Amino acid sequence: MSYARVLCVGLVGVDGHLVEVEADLAAGLPGVVISGLPDTALHEARDRVRAAVVNSGQRWPNRRITLNLLPATLPKFGSAFDLAIAVALLGGSGELPLLPLEGVAILGELGLDGAVRPVRGVLPMVAAAARAGIDRVIVPADNAAEAAVVPGLRVRGVDSLHRLVCFVRDGRPLIEPAVDEMPEATTGPDLADVAGQGLGRRALEVAAAGGHHLALIGPPGAGKTMLAERLPSILPTLDDDAALEVTALHSVAGLLPAGGRLIRRPPFQAPHHTATVPSIVGGGAGLARPGAISLAHRGVLFLDEAPEFSKPALEALRQPLEHGRVLLTRSRGNAEYPARAQLVLAANPCPCANPAGDDRCECAPTARRRYLGRLSGPLLDRIDLQVRLQPMRAAELMEPAAHESSAVVAARVAAARQAAAGRWAALGRRLNSEIPGPYLRRPPWRLPNPVTADLRARLDSGSLSARGFDRVIRLAWTIADLDGRVRPDHKDIAEAITLRTGEGT
């Protein structure tokens, strides 16, 4: 037999695609040709596979070898095809009977000694195989626990090409995944640690309940960073679909913790203010990798000292914030990553950042405007809550009142989210922040004119944009959900305007 076919999975962005690895061995000048839009890593697979086959005690066929990866129109990236290529090659040369591997997807990178190395993105790969009807996969032993979280799959691990050859020839067992059954740790910063800042705590709760973006502006020591770091502690744990999305993104980025568990806690990303555009929204040579906003998907992206970030990095967030996805276009193809994260910005009100606040500010008015002007109007227009925090007082710091813990606030947030999900179920949405403006401005969800009178006046005067109008309405619905009301009233609108504009804070 001079032809063999083995199944593998390719990855473009976070989307997996079933790939057929074909091997044809013919008479002629010895050599290896790989077709099917391979990248540099795949071209180099010729040398890796040759060394791995020989060092595993197998005979290398001294023939003309053609390897083809189908579909040929799909770009192929990375070294995850190595093991499938080696198996197809041995099958085509007659060294290995491939009947035991019929309908099995095979993934893994080969070392020169024949060892099977772990690869990135195994979770979305095996999930794609399962969607394509594959029920058995063989992956690197170090990735087996990760692959095993996909339901309906029989996963086996392999640590060397020699072990896989022995399995096919003699039926020797492969490695079964050892999934860590311990629950994910939930310890972290607690909201009870924050002294004072009742307005900031309220804004944080509203942001969590409705999935709204938040800007915290105030002097150093006011508690901006403490509040932002505690937002994940009051967010609900991720359901199965969201957990699979988040875990897949971290798998693609190579950041998945060991143990094979789904990530259940909302992620928290806090890049330094020197971060580049690719590190924020994604990029890199070859196949674009997910950036911080995608790694914060279903969680929180926190930009501390936001005016210190480069303007291109900040402006690059505008489209992902609006659409919840990032499309990265490169010469070798497009990669699309989900990016539905809550953005939290923290900023000092001026360059001098006097801890006493505005009363002792040494900056000229033009300097203050220029500093916060680094946060552009279009970006701020997408931030639902814009809250100004006051300096901390001695009484609040030294004799703090007993504040609610994250667990108590999280229970209210969960109840508010449940109310919103029930209301918007017919639209296929779960959060108030996700509801398109037109739905909020027409029956049955349009609020009475007396309730929105102040809001409409602000829109007519130009002090509020049309986008801002819709965002205030969404905030009012979240406030009503938190307070247990069926519909927002004029007090909810007034509080939403305060939280949106920062007036009165």
Automatic annotation (TrEMBL):
Signal sequence, start to end: none
Keywords: ATP-binding, Nucleotide-binding
Gene Ontology molecular-function annotations: ATP binding
Entries under Gene3D superfamilies matching the protein: 3.30.230.10, P-loop containing nucleotide triphosphate hydrolases
Domain AAA+ ATPase: 210-393
SMART domains the record matches: AAA
Highest rank taxon of the organism: Bacteria
A Pfam family annotated for this UniProt entry: Mg_chelatase
Family classification: Belongs to the Mg-chelatase subunits D/I family. ComM subfamily.
Protein name, as recorded: ATP-binding protein
Organism per entry: Micromonospora craniellae
